[in-house]
Write a structure and sequence with these properties.
With 191 residues, the chain is mainly β. It contains no helices and 16 strands. Strands 8-14-13-10-11 form a five-stranded mixed sheet, with no helix packed on it. A four-stranded mixed sheet has the order 2-6-5-4, with no helix packed on it. A three-stranded antiparallel sheet has the order 7-9-12, with no helix packed on it. Strand 5 and strand 6 form a beta hairpin. The chain is rod-shaped, with a radius of gyration of 31 Å. It starts with a strand and ends with a strand.
């Protein structure tokens, strides 16, 4: 007689269940199983089988299935479409998540702020691998995968916003104003 035999289990690793209770009217019942509660399962669906053998070698098997949900994989980096991640005040910049993958019910989540993964969520960008932002001050952006099985480590990039002209530059020569087709060189020196 079997009790507590699970139905199909859908879960993340490690997968747990209550061990079925198997009883027999003969003494010397031995039970074995292909997997134990707390085991890690491979991708997809796996059959779990319990086998009961009594002292007279009468054998019965009882099975159920485990479908393992996939975990998300952390992104490898975040990049921008600007050299040195710099913009001038009022300009926008594109940020892109590189690498990684989404697991069961996973989505990309974006944050700003401090700490290892930011403190201020940016829900308008949830699910996007690339976003366009126009920060008014230097800002660090973070992204990670969040899903049913896990939350990954973050990747980040700091966007530097220049609000003033560069210091220490002086224009030392300007070409004369010319006609169409005329060219010249502006010479700058550090001050």
């Amino acid at each position: 007689i079997v009790s507590n035999l699970p139905d199909t289990i859908y879960a993340c690793n490690p997968v747990s269940w209550t061990t079925p209770t198997i009883t027999d009217n003969c003494l010397g019942l031995q039970t074995t199983s292909t997997h134990a509660p707390g085991d890690n399962f491979g991708p997809g669906t796996t059959q779990v089988t319990y086998t009961a053998t009594d002292a007279y070698n009468n054998t019965s098997t009882y099975s159920f299935y485990v479908t393992r949900y996939e975990e998300s994989v952390a992104p490898t980096s975040m990049t921008t479409d600007r050299s040195f991640n710099n913009i001038c005040a009022g300009e926008s910049i594109n940020l892109t998540i590189n690498g990684g993958s989404l697991g069961e019910a996973g989505t990309w989540k974006w944050y700003t702020g401090t700490g290892p993964c930011g403190s201020t969520p940016l829900p308008a960008f949830n699910g996007m691998t690339s976003i366009n932002v126009t920060p008014s001050v230097t800002t660090t952006y973070y992204a990670r995968a969040e899903g049913f099985c896990n939350t990954t480590a973050c990747v980040s990039v700091t966007v530097v916003v220049s609000t003033t002209a560069p210091n220490g530059v002086s224009i030392t020569s300007v070409p004369p104003i010319g006609a169409v087709g005329q060219t010249g060189v502006v010479t700058c020196t550090n001050v």
